[in-house]
Design brief:
single chain, 86 residues, mainly alpha, two-stranded antiparallel ribbon, 4 helices, 2 strands
Length: 86
């Protein structure tokens, strides 16, 4: 688990919730692709180009930080709804 995910967990997203979200994403991937219940999910997720939940959180956070560092528009750096600013 990356540092960013640990930070997100520290803000209020628990490991239990991340596991539930991953389970939901796995079910959605199976529904979208028609994969059976006992087929390994990793190749299915790669086929439809979905990142696992924890990796997606890390990716989205990295994109936000990149935009804040290299964007001339300051308003993109605020995290709406959380009261936090980067």
């Amino acid at each position: 688990m990356g540092d960013v995910t640990r930070t997100i967990i520290g803000v209020g997203v628990t490991g239990w919730l991340l596991n539930k979200l991953q389970s939901l994403q796995n079910a959605a991937a199976r529904l979208v692709t028609g994969a059976r219940k006992f087929v390994h999910i990793t190749p299915v997720m790669r086929e439809i180009r979905w990142l696992p939940v924890r990796q997606r959180i890390t990716f989205k956070t990295a994109v936000l930080v990149f935009k804040c560092l290299y964007s001339p528009v300051i308003s993109e750096c605020s995290l709406s709804g959380s009261g936090l600013s980067v």
